[in-house]
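cron nightly-structures :: item 1 of 1
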Amino acid sequence: MPASIPHVFVVHGDLTELACDAIMIPTDARLSLREHWHGVVPEHGELRDDPSLERFRAQGELAHVLEAGTSDPHAPLRVLTAVPLSGFVNADALRPRVLAFIERAARRIPSHRESRVGTGQARELPLVAMPLFGVGGGGGGMRRTRVLDVILAAARDGAREHGVDVALVLRTEPDAALAQQRRHEVPDESWRAIDDRLLVLARDLADKARAGRLVPFIGAGVSVSAGAPTWGQLLEQLCDRLDLPPHLRAAVLDGGLSPLDQASYLRSAFEQEGLDFRTTVAEIVERQRYGLAPALLAAAAGEQAITLNYDTLFERASTNAGRPRRVISGTDALSERTPEDSGVATADSDRWLLKLHGTASDPGSIVLTREDYLGFAAERSALSAIVKATLITRHLLFVGFGLADDHFHEIMHDVRRAVGSSPGMATALSLFENPLADGLWAGTLRFEPMEHGAFSQDALPRAARNLELLLDAVAAHAADSRSYLMSSEHEDGLSESELRTRELLQELGRIAPEALPDWCRPRREDS
């Protein structure tokens, strides 16, 4: 099997909340960090007196790895990266700094991974993440386009040289829109890592996303990249919390019980110990950082999204991408109670996330045991109706979802009875081929494997990375914003045709502002 080709992902979000192997923290020789970084570097006030940073302070090294400053086993390696102390005139000054960050991170990641044994399966290629830096205090604020071009090119070169993936995480929508546009201009460079078959699929899904028809149905596999537990791992951790004796633990995990009955027994055991079962479940599944998959789905998803997951990773990724969602979950989700009362996140009502089985932010809403499932039809039939209507009127994209959930089968059965089968109803992204899938779901679901052949533990990291590559291509091809054209900070690197387009849009805004595309209108941007 040929070696995988390193790739540069583009993510619209918050770098401090992205799960990765290493993170760039830009600073200058004075080691002053903006408040945004204080949570990642809690020892920021002590850096100026750290003797190990003497060469960095003297500008003798461009990148320096900070030793672990947190007990979080999922925390990334932290790499201080030098920004010119007195600013810069030429954006090319940033190139060696990008390369130094990638080289230093790639060298230390193997030992960092060894120290995190038990935190989940590592990616096929390490992931290092970085922001658009040098555009604030670094002096490049009015040369944003040129800075972005240099960083993208350097990231591609560094990724190839050191065998890692790079995530360029951008906080503002114009920056993200420009980065996607720049990738379209060099398709051979941008999509070398993705299989041609998957790239064709990505463009098809992106067409549906731009038309407002693509609705992601998000399963547990989407959260695994952030270290969230699989079903089996969740049960194991619940058993750990109870400190079950070996014979009971084996009976729960390996005794042939259905997943619903496993959860029912554990809930009873928690209650006997006076412990809150659902709150414990919420604590186990929640994570501080989201992976690439939720972030990329958040960029491509339209107004609607559906999940069976309890964690809040997708909605947080959506908020960080400037697309906050109203969360619908629990028996009171469609009632007149306020968001604050019900645990539902406040967000723009134009976008929503239906959490069919509840949410960790409201543990009482969680559906997990057989009793929960038996009561679902009576208590949450309105939520099921939303899914059925979505299946009929939109194109569902199942991601990280095993299609084995009983509730899902009931919904699909009702839809088939109501409208029959439709080949274009939904697409299911599976990690591997399933020879039975077409027979079970013929005429309803189109199955697209990320890796040819049957399941293989050895091939699992490659298949999971292929899914991330696909979602990155979907997000890029679904992006139709040119908001950077209207930003004065991006004017420096625009082509003659882009500058002319900008002038025409500005004139249109003066004459008929209501005719401007949505992406031309003023919007709040993250700092």
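cron nightly-structures :: done
The radius of gyration is 24 Å.
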